[in-house]
Amino acid sequence: MIGFSLFMWAWQVEPRRVETVTAAMEMPQWKRKESPPLRIAIAGDFHLRPNGGDLAHRYMETIMEARPDMIFLLGDYANGHTRESSMAPETAREYFKMLKAPLGIFAVQGNHDQYYGWNLWRNMFSGLGILPMWNDSLLLHLPGGRELQLSSVRDDYHLRIRPEELPLRFSPDIPHILLSHVPDIFPLLAPGTADLVISAHTHGGQICLPGGRALANISREKVKFSYPWSQLNGTPFLITRGLGCSVLPLRFCCPPEIIVLEIQ
């Protein structure tokens, strides 16, 4: 009876209990800029299933409840390894159009989006005014005279990233945030390349013991990460447990989350 109750919790309850986790950091390049913190909502690993409209609506509502200045979407909008196992981009459009942020919404690609067809997701996002990124670097001009370099690295699940594909830093005087669906990008990053890397993919383990120790390595990552912060090769990594489920439609002691990052 206890086992059945735990299974029902992991299947029907915990995957719907979306948490909002707050994090904060200071950018030394902005120390002389007297402006409110930049508030960023971070969400990844949606794994939208064909009949997952209720969960999709919940995800978008939770993101908007954070009242973000900017939104980062970290990939795996598609679910599974076939189109039949995933919500279609044209259906997902009805949910992603709920997202609004005055300073922009930026989306990178995950490994499951490659299975479905990244161009279809990219076109859907572009039609909504969400900027899809693929090995791009942007210079953003923010209120209060602040500048921010925002870069992306394509997902390397099928084709390994080469060092020459990594974005170059514009200037050490400008904060640099790098978005990468998979945090395993760290071996290629020279110290000082970025002030912060933001990733998803790991699901936080998805099925864990109390205290967060994963029972299985769902995402096959090569390194054990801590959540939400890790430090690798001298670079801070902010890693979200993500929203959806992969392989098994279960979450246990690892609830779905969005992260709200405030940068001062």
UniProtKB/TrEMBL annotation:
Coiled-coil segments on the chain, per record: none
Record key words, sorted: Hydrolase, Metal-binding
GO cellular component: membrane
Pfam family, one: Metallophos
Residue span, Calcineurin-like phosphoesterase domain: 38-204
Molecular-function annotations in GO: metal ion binding; UDP-2,3-diacylglucosamine hydrolase activity
Keyword Metal-binding: yes
BP-aspect Gene Ontology terms: lipid A biosynthetic process
InterPro entries xref list: Calcineurin-like_PHP, Metallo-depent_PP-like, Metallophosphoesterase_sf
Taxonomic superkingdom: Bacteria
Entry protein name: Metallophosphoesterase
Species in which this protein is naturally found: Akkermansia muciniphila (strain ATCC BAA-835 / DSM 22959 / JCM 33894 / BCRC 81048 / CCUG 64013 / CIP 107961 / Muc)
